[in-house]
Amino acid sequence: MATFTTDYDSPWKEALEYYLPDFLALLAPWLHEQVDWQVAPVFLDKELQAISREAHTGRRYADKLVRLQSKTRHPIWILIHIEVQGGVMSAVGLELFGERMFQYFYRINDHYPKTLITSGGSCQKMELISLGVLTASTGNETHLVYSRESLKACSVKFSFPVVHLASWLGRWNELVQQAIHNPFAVVVMAQLQAQQTRKNTAQRLVSKTQIIRLMYQYQYSREDILRLFRVIDWMMALPAELEPAFEQARI
After folding, report:
1. Cα distance between residue 80 and residue 17, in whole Å
2. CA 175 to CA 26: how far, in whole Å?
């Protein structure tokens, strides 16, 4: 069956802006619990664009740079890099992924101050965390390592946390239960099923309909339903000839 093109990057970016706390609660709970969520996140799109122009590492539409505040009242800058994969990543692909994460990290660290001066005159150390998400990986490593050595004279080793999104395929029932209280679980469902059905439009229609019906069962607010429907519809785009069948099936 024919493969068709789907835009994954844009809906990820939109979903992160809508549901950042839920994203971290589901995929990086160790980080979520360190954040003071009473302080609103600040998305640093202009800052990230300035860095991206100088780093020759390909597309970055799903990347987000956000400033948060820790429970200890220190600023946290988090770079979230979503690596949308068409299939299992090769060893070379993983190395390039690690290099991209390293380039981002050192460029942010190089461009922006390591400490911030508060209104009271005290210094606050800026914590910078690079979080990678591999959408088709089922690995279990909590961190990946990028390393480089030149003639055994100079070397670099960079370790960063990573989320293996496809590992949730083996925990689907848990994901369904998480979605009752966490709308970002629905986004993860849509991404995983979009990848599973890249070459099967008929199955995509079935999967998309099932996810939409589940979403309506969760009694989300009207605003959440509209947002999630937009993201799901974007991620799980159907050929024009199947759209009428989808409209009929989801009623």
Report:
1. 11
2. 9
pTM of the model: 0.89
85-114 average pLDDT score: 84
**How does pLDDT run across 155-199, given as a tens digit for each residue?**
999 999 999 999 999 999 999 999 999 999 999 999 999 999 988
pLDDT given for residue 122 in this prediction: 66
Strand partners, 129: 78
Amino acid letter for position 172: W
* 39 contact partners, CB below 8 Å, separation of at least 6: 68, 69
